[in-house]
Amino acid sequence: MTIPIIDFRSKDCVNQMYDAYTTVGFAVFQNVYDEWLDDFTKWKILMEEFFLLPTDVKKLNTYSGVTENLGYNWLEEERLTPTMPGDLKESYNWVSPDRMQEEYWPREFGKPRFKPQAQKIERIARLLSYEFLYKFEEMFSLPKGFLVEKHVDGSATMRMIHYPKWEGEVKEGQLRGGSHTDYGSITLLWRFDDVGGLQVENRETGEWEDVPVVENSIVLNVADMFSRWSNGILKSTNHRVINTDMAQSRYSMPYFVDPGRDVMIENFTNQPDKFEPISAYEYLKWRLAQSYNDDTYIENQEISKEGEQYLNTILPIPSKKV
Questions:
Q1: Lesser CB count within 10 Å: N end or C end of the chain?
Q2: For 240-254, how does the pLDDT look when each residue is reduced to its tens digit (9 = 90+)?
């Protein structure tokens, strides 16, 4: 398995994407957002300043719960692998202005710089996600705008993540980011340094392979709902962040692209259906609830049963230990 590096502006981009996402489920893209590099340089400074704040200040914007998926999570609060100890990271989630709730913006930090720059970064990510979705439409010969329209009023979430330097105890099985698949359509990932750790599981062998670090690139992976939407043609693949270079902080920023809350995920190919239609939003909430303790979440038994069955069909063979 080789994780490809693709020139987003090349004439053969769509063909290379098809090869990548029907096998590996991941690719690294160059020449995607060069006109906005200065904005992301400024944003990295603000990210670092935010995560340097005292924990009690950051907790003024404590995570909202899975329904809105906003705000700050501190160390070990999220478990990307639900059966393992909490991840060695902290994070902050925000969304588009029409969905963002004012009380989840940092109250004691970065005014007036943080909020407007965060909104601009989210806006850039949203525009780029549409460019990628247009290419997936072309890949499957779908009508222009078919996928983009399903995401214009979507449930996308922007997240900045800090994996801090760590000299303390590491519990058995504990990682910076536990093994998991993503939940929605696609994920765009920015990495702000050359600290490694991101790995993808080989679907055939169970071996883990490093995702190459390429300056000013975007890593894009297919998530569960998009795989299901494509009738399993596109692959949602296990990935993780291992405990490498723990003497250094690591910063990254995924943009989780999810369909609208009223969207039903139904096979968009011309092949016989492999899966029943499912609510994108109900599935998203169910997957989030597996990683967080949220007493307000009321489990949908039908979604839970369907979700567990679906995960059993897309996950690769059990991983080999490293």
A1: C
A2: 999 988 889 999 999
Could you read off the pLDDT of 118-149 as tens digits, one per residue? 999 999 999 999 999 999 999 999 999 999 99
Give DSSP secondary structure letters for 271-298: SPPSS--EEHHHHHHHHHHTTS--TT--
- 104-114 per-position pLDDT tens digit: 999 777 668 89
Q: CB neighbours (10 Å) of residue 208?
A: 18
User: Which amino acid type is present at position 38?
Assistant: D
| pLDDT value of position 318 | 46
Q: Buried b / exposed e across 33-49, counting CB within 10 Å, b at 16+?
A: beebeeebeebeebbee
- Report helix, strand or coil for 66: coil
Please provide the DSSP assignment of 203-231 as one string.
TTT--EEEPPP-TT-EEEEE-HHHHHHTT
Domain ranges of the chain: 5-314
Homologous superfamily (CATH) for 5-314 = B-lactam Antibiotic, Isopenicillin N Synthase; Chain (2.60.120.330)
Q: Are strands 218-222 and 186-191 parallel, antiparallel or unpaired?
A: antiparallel
Which residues share a beta bridge with 95? none
**d(Cα 147, Cα 130) in Å, to the nearest integer?**
9
Confidence check: pLDDT of 311 > 90: no
pLDDT over 70 for what percent of the chain?
88
Alpha-carbon span 55 to 73, nearest angstrom: 10
Mean per-residue pLDDT, 77-84: 80
Task: Report the C-alpha gap between 49 and 46 in whole angstroms.
Answer: 5
State the pTM of this model: 0.89
Q: Is the pLDDT of residue 259 over 70?
A: yes
The span from the CA of 203 to the CA of 182, in Å, is 15
- Is the CB of residue 84 less than 8 Å from the CB of residue 173? yes
Spatial CA neighbour of 259 closest among 300, 298, 229: 229
